[in-house]
Structures are given as structure tokens and as C-alpha cells.
Amino acid sequence: MSTTAELVQLLDLETLEDNLFRGKNPPESWPFRTRVFGGQVLAQALVAAQRTVDLAAHSLHAYFLLAGDPSVPILYEVERVRDGRSFATRRTVAIQHGRPIFIMSVSFHREEPGLDHQIDLEAAVEGEVEGEVPAPQDVPGLDALAADVLERLPAPVRDYWLRPRPIELKPIGLGQTHSVPRRMVWFRAAAPLPDAPELHRAVLAYASDMTLLEATTLVHGTSVLGAGIQAASLDHALWIHRPFRADGWLLYVQDSPSASGARGLARGLIYDERRRLVASVAQEGLIRPIRKASGSE
Fold first, then answer.
1. What is the CATH number of the domain that holds 201?
2. Are the C-beta atoms of 55 and 87 separated by less than 8 Å?
3. 283 or 155, which is more confident?
4. Where in the numbering of this chain does the Acyl-CoA thioesterase-like N-terminal HotDog domain appear (predicted)?
5. Which among 64, 87, 90, 225 would be 20 to 30 A from 104, CA to CA?
């Protein structure tokens, strides 16, 4: 899947029955072609839940149970857990081959006034860059990266960043050595989206899973995309704080506070160009080193 129009079509689920929806897969699954991209399941499950409620989603918590099969559609069954005056709760189960592959709880909230504060961008990126965080127009696109930067990247990492996708990415300092497990990526939908807030939330959920787990390997000189690591998202949480547009530039500030026991925890703060914190993300993933056989027979 390489265009925003294809992503919008992917998120337009088929209604089969009350609380039951079917989602298709793109012709080629990202990035391993043997399983469905987790961000796709997140986004489609959110779309299914949103179809059953009139309030705005403000948080979701999900677990990836089994790898999705890209050769067959995914069924999404929504349970209407609670409908209150201010909040509603939904539980979505993604099903393939008669088995749950993914479960997600989503909370919805009716908009209302309240207290307001945020961690400023400068505090979130302290020590990561010298001077101001570069604006998206000052960060080269992936098609404009210098040849020497691309040559330093392992082939799987280079192929990942350069492949066509519906989300435009501008990583800051790609190819640089990281002494702390933190990095930043500007992203946005690669083409304008319709004026539907629920679609923008779904696209944000899709994009929030695209680069986050890589933060867990930054200081180890390896990558979740390489042959030396068995990687998979285990869970995913997303909190939406303020209105935003997913087709406007968003800065994803990512870090990893811990990795141990073949698992890594990654966090993300997502700011818009006005430096408003619009969302927060957390994910734990499997980052299991693949040990080669000793061959000592």
C-alpha cells in the first residue's frame, strides 16, 4: 500500500451486522509480507469501535495476540461495554481463522472544558538536538537524503525508509549514532484527508505504530528490521489529548526507558507544528536477539 487514498479505503470497513465489521488487507502487508502491519489492525479496530458511538475516542489500550494473515480479511466484533452521559467504552476483537488475533478497549469522551497543561517540546527533547528542533520543511525528505547517509544504513533499514507508503516520514538525524534511546520523526498523511475527525484519529493510530519500536534498539547498534532481531509489537496504548489533523505535520518524539528480558518499552509524545501535545503513545515489544547455531558437532 503506497497512497493515502488506499489507506482511506483500507479504513472504510464493511458492515456485516450490528457490531460486526470486515476489514480488507492491502495487496502487500507491511513490512515483512508474512503478517499484517499492527498499525493497520489498530486503526481498523478503532474504526469499528467508532462506528458504534457518537463520542470522540480519547484512549485505546490493545494487545497483539497472533500475527495477522495478510491473505484473508479480518473480522472486527465490537462489544458495547458501557454508554454513559460523558463516557462510553467499547471492546473490539479482531478475528481470523476463528481465533482472536487482537483485542482492544477504547474509551470515548464527550468534549468538555477543564484544566489545561502539557510538557513543552523543549523539555521533551532536552539534550537531543542543539538549538531549535528543525521544522519539517528544514528536514530532508527520504527521497532527498544524501547518498552517504543511505550507504551507512543496513539494507533492511534503508529499504524500509525508502519504500512508498501512505504516511510521509521525515526522520531527524537518520543514520546518526545515538548515545541515549531517543529520536524524532516528523510525519503526516502523504495527501490531504477528508474533514472527518474520526478518520484522522484512525490514521494517527495507524502511524503511531510505524517507527516506535525501533527506539528500543537505537543504543544497541541493531534494528528491529534487521535479521539479527526477532521483533513484534506486544501491546499498544494511545491517548489523544487535543484536536489535530493527521494530514498536517506531526512530530513524534520517541524514547525507550527500558529494555530487558527480550522485551523493550517505547514511548512517544506527538506534537503538532504549533507545538501542542496532541497525543501520547506507549508500546512494549518483543526484541529477541536471534542466536546462530554454534555448529560445534
1. 2.40.160.210
2. yes
3. 283
4. 27-109
5. 225
